[in-house]
Amino acid sequence: MRHSQLLVLFFLSAAPLFAQGPPEGPTSEKAQKSYREALEEVHKRRTDFALDGFKKADKQDQGRCLACQKKMIQYGLELHEWKTAETAADEMVAEAQGEKSVALAHFEVGIVLLNEGRDKHKNELFTRAHDEFTKSLGAFRNFPEALLADGKALAQLNEDAAAKAQFEKYVELKPVGEPERQRALRYITEPELARARMAPPFAIDTLDGQHISLDDLTGKVVLIDFWATWCGPCREAMPHIREIAKKFEGQPLVVLSVSLDSDEGKWKEFISKNGMTWLHYRDRGFSGSIANLFGVKAIPHTFTIDADGVLQDEHIGDASIEGKLKKLVARAQALERPQKPLQ
Questions:
Q1: What is the pLDDT of residue 115?
Q2: I want to staple 41 with a disulfide (CB 3.0 to 4.6 A). Which of 13, 49, 60, 132 is the partner?
Q3: Interatomic CA distance for residues 274 and 237, integer angstroms
Q4: Nearest CA among 252, 250, 226, 249 for reference residue 238
Q5: What is the crossing angle of helices 47-60 and 29-43, to 10°?
Q6: How many other CB atoms sit within 10 Å of the CB of residue 316?
Q7: Is 42 within 8 Å of 50 (Cβ atoms)?
Q8: What is the pLDDT of residue 205?
Q9: CA-CA distance, 178 to 213, in Å (whole number)?
Q10: pLDDT tens string 36-72
């Protein structure tokens, strides 16, 4: 999986924290037309064409279209179009007014640089990202997501003590039980995880009534399967998932099937009829919270996560993953970590 996509999907969620209303769209008639056409390309899932459209609309609007800039950052990061994303973020800084807008604008620049740094493995970019997060926090001190992001930038620079301090500040600002807070607590004790390709944290209520978070499953291998009853290839792959669940029963492996079904009745009926006895959650389409976090755009789509919560494998379509699972489960058994029971 593209690591930068995971980062942007989480970090762009910080924008609503400061939003005073819907993002400003373009003002000129030409720009408005280009913006609408770009949105149509998004609907068709032609992201590259959509990005070109948002760039065009922003240019036609003299670089002042906030809505265009947000889309340029989102899709620029997804497509690794770093120059486009950074240009949009710089425009946000230039137009920002008020402490919260300034904080958010510098935060966005930092996120672009953090993503690019992880993609290119360049410390210079992490240093620049830290500088931008510092400016963001200078404008708005109690900005949780900026603290968390700065901690990650500092961790990449191996400045673990400084990173830990930022993670601790973040934890103080977030409510107990929030998935990202739970993850930050792990970063405090295991700073090396902040440098790893971690699976995005989440918490769900499963079909059988269990409330679980990904970090509750630390010490276990997790296989997440995105599917839907209306997806032919998913139905064909289901016996393979069932075989895996049965083969690894009693071992430190958790199988979680995340359905994109809109019809709850059909979903429950399919699970019951097909003897799918592992964990299930319904995410209600590609725009669902979990599918969004993982950047799922096609199904069946599986992710393998190791005992530390690090993403190890990703497959679109049915694929042979048992060999990899055996190795990861053996490692999890060797770790022998005490586990928090599922409740």
A1: 94
A2: 49
A3: 12
A4: 226
A5: 170
A6: 14
A7: yes
A8: 94
A9: 9
A10: 999 999 989 899 999 999 999 999 999 999 999 999 9
pLDDT digits (tens, 9 = 90+) for 269-317: 999 999 999 999 999 777 668 998 898 888 999 999 999 999 998 887 6
CA distances from residue 290 to 59, 226, 311 in whole angstroms, order as listed: 34, 9, 15
Q: Is the dihedral of CA 71, 123, 218, 315 positive or negative?
A: positive
On whether the CB atoms of residues 145 and 11 are closer than 8 A, the answer is yes
Give the whole-angstrom CA distance, residue 8 versus residue 75.
9
Burial class (CB in 10 A: 0-12, 13-18, 19+), 154: buried
CB 194 within 8 A of CB 152: yes
What are the residues facing 301 on neighbouring strands? Answer: 226, 316
The answer to whether the CB of 9 falls within 8 A of the CB of 293 is yes
Q: What pTM, to 2 d.p., does this model score?
A: 0.84
- For residue 254, the cross-strand partners are 222
Q: Using CA of residue 105, residue 108, residue 114, residue 116, what is the dihedral sign? A: negative
Integer Rg of the chain from CA? 21
